[in-house]
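Q: Start with the shorter request: fold the first protein.
A: Done. Sequence, then structure:
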Amino acid sequence: MQRYFLPNDHFTNGYVKMDDESTKHIARVMRMKNDDEVICCNEDGSCYIVALDVAPDEVRGRVLYQEERSSELPVDVTIAQGLPKGDKLELTIQKATELGAFSFLPFEATRSVAKLDAKKADKKVERWQRIAKEASEQSHRQRVPNVTFVSWQELLTSASDFTHVIVAYEEAAKEDERSSFKAVLQKLSPGDRVLLVCGPEGGLTDAEVKKLEEVKAIRCGLGPRILRSETAPLYGLSAISYQIELSG
């Protein structure tokens, strides 16, 4: 069943008003008809099965019942990713959204080749947010992860908001360090907030890792192999998903 994410003010008294993008998709792309059913989700993560009333330029829906099944991770995992080259971050956002990421904090790391000024950052965030929305629709999420471009200092300051802060550190992998990540995974409980920090190509510098450790981050090796910048967040999320959703 097709899924759409809409602002809270589009849900009123048992009815839903589709936005322009969703209206075009329903009427012109999917060619849906009256009484066809879709799922509409609000910004709070509540999703409803809706029967459509389709007109060429406006689509409304009548709420039939609320979706009870939840596909969200029991822990909120935020991915802080040092800006990689090219469109690698787009791939990470798409796939990490499918794996259940709660939000994304792209930042310029010391070794980031890609640089963003304020104007470019706004356009990039708009595109990244659209990718997250499309991936949420495809993977039947109840929420769309939020993407916020942050400075290095903002990232350090935000660390206190999380239950666990994990730093994917390639030097730890080279040293065959395996216990730290496992220990964090075993401590996870539903409702925890996890910040997973991954570097760009070349990884985080020693100085960056030390700064993160000063705000209680745990440096971790993600297995014995050296992972690409776009692979490390997906490995981390998959391990968290297994531990919290499947291992019991």
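Q: Next, the second protein, separately.
A: Sequence, then structure:
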Amino acid sequence: MEEIIVENKPKLIKWLSSDSDIFLQYVQAKKLITTSQYTELMEMRAKERVIRLLDIILGNGENVCRKFLDLLKEDDVNESSPELREWIKTVDTEDQKTENDCKKESVDRPIQDQKPYRDCQQMPIQDCQRFLKKNLSFLVQKVCNIDPIIDDLDLHPESDAKVRAKSTNQEKMRTLLGHVNCESIAKDLVIALFKHEKHLMNELQNNY
């Protein structure tokens, strides 16, 4: 995400400078900057304000950069710049998530938010990504309780919408598996499968 912003920084400065005072209200509403930073930025001229804002966003790490790009996708935010609107459509913030991001999210997630596996003291499957890949065809054909499984996952909103938009369980499951790009997501999915498709997963586990 940082790389995308850096590479397109000159264009972002141009696009956002025209209504920078209004745009800053959206940025503050999303809590991407502090109150003191907001006050500092509002005292600047438009172009300087956007340059400083982008530097603040870049300095706050990958997750804030992703939230910033997601903000640019909102119609109310990009309506004043057709060029920005067309460009941001080409930016896939979900696919840019790396395995390190996933690991960090798993570590940083509060204990009460982590999904417990209640049937045993530890995960019965150690390499969840390998397990899902090996059994992809079987899972696509057999899993029926897709919606409650999706409910148990912390999917990116765009990924969640893409999965739910599919018309059949097979299409939903195939799309869902396509978004498993790191071990922490794979682990959450395996836990959800054991919860909602216990007999099916026990059968697969016995043959694993």
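Q: Describe the second briefly.
A: The first helix runs from residue 2 to 7. Confidence is low (pLDDT under 50) at residues 95-99, 105-123.
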